[in-house]
Amino acid sequence: MSLSMNGRTLMSMLGNGVRFVSFRSKHSGPKVALLGANGGIGQPLGLLLKINPNIGRLALYDIVGTPGVAADLSHIDSPAEVKAFTGPQELQKALEGADVVVIPAGVPRKPGMTRDDLFNTNAGIVRDLCEAVAKTCPKAFVAIITNPVNSTVPIASEVFKKHNVYDPKRIFGVTTLDVVRAQAFVSTMKGTDVSKTTVPVIGGHAGVTIIPLLSQVKPSVKFSDSEVKPLTERIQDAGTEVVQAKAGAGSATLSMAFAGERFVNALLKGLKGEKQVQCAYVKSDAVQGVEYFSTPIELGPNGVEKILGTGTLNAFEKQLVQSAIPELKSSIEKGVKFVKK
């Protein structure tokens, strides 16, 4: 029997296998806190997290409606124990002992709105939630879905700095939806097996900052010049495509929930020591001129173990990066100023 160096898990030898038992609970597997569990993304994401076998406890938090979501999910015959927490007075309890905190809380985008239009409302929500995380479970991995991600990740970082618990390896902007979309669109266009198609997407998580690396698709496929530009633009504008298709009734919720669960699952596997590679928007020196940038990263027990960088870019992709830098710088500065004001 041995204790892991970071104190997160107790490794119990059972027969020929190893079981990871959370210190904080009799339930095997880590605790995930979902903040914004009653929302359009939160409900389907909660469903996917409930049936994830790597989760021992699932804490659902929102300002209203959480008991109903928890009651519904608790009837599913999967191992994760579900508990509801409602309102600011119960936020600390929701976060106690959390290994991973997932934040989809906020208002969705509507027709005609840019992600920047969401800033004033969502920035305050992320700031307040991260204040509670910094005080209650500062060592948790924090996966931020709330838009505009290009600004909300810097907001989270500044809050953690303010409380002297900042670890850039543990704060992530979830850009997995851009990867999922790119892989779906490329597979449809080229007839590849979508389950084996990988497309790195770098940059940020809004408009021109979303940079699909079509030159690095695996398995390798060729794109004509007439295909690259419209496909790139479709990936960049895919969120708007969904907003318009829903005719004002919502934004990308189901696909975002799917992508969010994929990223959280990678964090959980990394926590157990299984090396994972995902694209995410993190503090990075991969590109000069910006403090945060999304590239493929290697995940492990400490969060970001390695930033794998952009790889070799072609001329078109290099131009996309240069076009994204001013937009990213502006969004990052906006987030930092929001906390420091």
UniProtKB/TrEMBL annotation:
InterPro entries: L-lactate/malate_DH, Lactate/malate_DH_C, Lactate/malate_DH_N, Lactate_DH/Glyco_Ohase_4_C, Malate_DH_AS, Malate_DH_type1, NAD(P)-bd_dom_sf. This is Malate dehydrogenase. Keywords: NAD, Oxidoreductase, Tricarboxylic acid cycle. NAD(+) binds at G36, A37, N38, G39, G40, I41, G42, D62, N122, I145, T146, N147, M256. GO terms for biological process: malate metabolic process; tricarboxylic acid cycle. It is an enzyme of class 1 (oxidoreductase). One of its GO terms (cellular component) is mitochondrion. Residues 175-339 form the Lactate/malate dehydrogenase C-terminal domain. It comes from Plectus sambesii. The active site is at H205. Residues 31-173 form the Lactate/malate dehydrogenase N-terminal domain. It catalyses: (S)-malate + NAD(+) = oxaloacetate + NADH + H(+). It comes from the Eukaryota. Its EC number is 1.1.1.37.
